[in-house]
Design brief:
Length: 142
């Protein structure tokens, strides 16, 4: 279900989420969540507009989604960007995901894929993204 890079990162995310859960709020981490199961296009655009928007997200997924443990409401989407994200097609997909999250006011944090991760950096980025005062969504440098 997960690529080797995603599986490795998933372990780091699990550890970071367990650290976040020690702060009181409880979160659950899900992998490979279809975007259309998290976000819904605006019905005010009419049936054609809704169908067009739904078609753009229905076959795409978030790498990971952090949800409130009590309600299962999504609170944060997480993307792991590997070298395939440099292609024009991938950049267009990333822009679509960025725009959809922004419209839905769902924080998105992107991590570059790499051989190893510092758990404290990942945890810090998640905390920043979950912070109500965070003015920008964190993006870690390569």
């Amino acid at each position: 279900m997960l690529s080797p890079a995603e599986r490795s990162f998933y372990g780091v995310l699990q550890h970071s989420v367990s650290q976040l859960n020690q702060g009181g709020t409880q979160y659950l981490l899900f992998a490979k969540v279809r975007i259309a199961d998290v976000l819904e296009p605006d019905h005010r655009k009419g049936t054609k507009g809704w169908l067009r928007a739904f078609g753009r997200i229905s076959q795409k997924h978030f790498d990971f989604v952090l949800c409130d443990a009590k309600t299962l409401a999504p609170v944060l989407s997480i993307e792991l960007d590997d070298k395939s994200h440099r292609s024009n097609k991938a950049k267009a997909r990333d822009n679509l995901v960025n725009d959809a999250c922004e419209c839905a006011q769902l924080p998105l944090v992107r991590f570059p894929a790499k051989r190893g991760y510092q758990r404290n950096e990942v945890e810090f980025a998640l905390r920043q993204a979950l912070s109500p005062s965070a003015s920008e969504q964190p993006q870690l440098a390569n």
